């Protein structure tokens, strides 16, 4: 390829990339502006990203996922499912966002109990005043060969001044 063709090719690629970035940025700005104006009580949008569907964008607010068009004129709440594989893309995204690295947990601060060999490890977050948590902990005692790490996580409305 001649030098002139290479330069022309590079200019065309750069222009196409710049147009794509500018369009994505324009969509991002329009979505943020319209959603903020129409839903002022909503928290700040943390991230906007394109979905596999042209013109459909994912809005991430913390670990919650919503979908919208390129202008933020329509809002979709629910699961996005790929029909070929039957994969729930929304569920996969939320799982990725909320995943916790087991090794990063401060296990030394947990209440620990072991059943049998303790080969399997499980971490739970429990409210000490929650009846469901207490029942779950009783049910866990039926599991063999497990080490359970319990982090106390009291319900915020049950705290007393």
Structure description:
The chain is of the alpha+beta class. Helices cover 35% and strands 24% of the residues. The strands form three sheets. Strands 1-2-3-4 form a four-stranded antiparallel β-sheet, covered by helices on one side. Strand 5 and strand 6 form a beta hairpin. The N and C termini lie far apart (76 Å). About 12% of the residues have low confidence.
Compose a concise summary of this entry:
With 161 residues, this protein is of the alpha+beta class. The chain is built from three helices and nine strands, in the order αββββββαββαβ.
Q: How many helices?
A: 3
Structural class: alpha+beta
Oligomer: single chain
Query: How do the strands of the widest beta sheet line up side by side?
Result: 1-2-3-4
Give the helices and strands, then pairings:
Layout: H1 3-38, E1 47-50, E2 57-61, E3 64-68, E4 75-76, E5 81-82, E6 87-88, H2 89-98, E7 111-115, E8 120-126, H3 131-140, E9 146-152
């Amino acid at each position: 390829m001649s030098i002139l063709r290479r330069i022309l090719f590079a200019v065309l690629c750069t222009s196409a990339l710049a147009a794509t970035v500018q369009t994505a940025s324009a969509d991002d700005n329009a979505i943020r502006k319209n959603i903020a104006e129409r839903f002022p009580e909503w928290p700040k949008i943390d991230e906007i990203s394109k979905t596999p569907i042209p013109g459909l964008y994912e809005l991430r607010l913390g670990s919650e996922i919503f979908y919208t068009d390129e202008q933020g004129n329509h809002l979709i709440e629910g699961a996005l499912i790929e029909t070929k594989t039957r994969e729930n893309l929304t569920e996969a995204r939320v799982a990725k966002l909320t995943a916790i690295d087991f090794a990063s947990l401060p296990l030394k601060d947990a209440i620990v109990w072991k059943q049998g060999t303790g080969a399997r490890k499980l971490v739970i977050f429990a409210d000490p005043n929650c009846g469901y948590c207490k029942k779950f902990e009783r049910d866990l005692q039926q599991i063999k060969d497990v080490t359970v790490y319990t982090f106390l996580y009291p319900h915020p409305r049950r705290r007393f001044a």
